[in-house]
Amino acid sequence: MPAGSSRKRERQYEHIKEGAEKRGTSEKRAKEIAARTVNKERARAGESRTASRTSLRDPKSASRRGGQRSHSGPGGPTRDQLYEEARKKNIEGRSSMNKQQLSRALGR
User: Fold this and answer.
1) Residue 96 has what DSSP assignment?
2) Considering only CA atoms, which of 1, 81, 45, 50 is closest in space to residue 16?
């Protein structure tokens, strides 16, 4: 957990981590899931200095969504998630691409 986190976020982190471990996830992966979820919730609540566009715009909170769009499932990642990945990889023309084009450009 980042320094200066509230006790509520510390409890939330532990709760998510323990739940993931009970489901058979490795300790390392459980910590990652918990940290990502808590950080996203902090961003949505305005408790962090920076927040990604998808953290702020997503209509469902990360905990309510339950991994629905974690790069698998029927819809896979959202267009915004693909766009962010393309931006990090510096893919040219990404702003005018749709979801399918972004997937292809990322090699999915």
Assistant:
1) G
2) 1
The reply to whether the predicted model has a pTM over 0.90 is no
State what percent of residues in the chain have pLDDT above 70: 76
Strand, helix or coil at 12?
helix
Which residue, among 32, 66, 69, has the nearest Cα to 54 in the 3D structure?
A: 69
Around Cβ 23, how many Cβ atoms within 10 Å?
Answer: 9
- Cβ distance 86 to 105 under 8 Å? yes
Which of helix, strand or coil describes residue 88? helix
Say if CB 54 and CB 80 are below 8 A apart. yes
Residue type, 30: A
- Between 89 and 67, the more confident residue is 89
Looking at residue 55, what is its pLDDT? 67
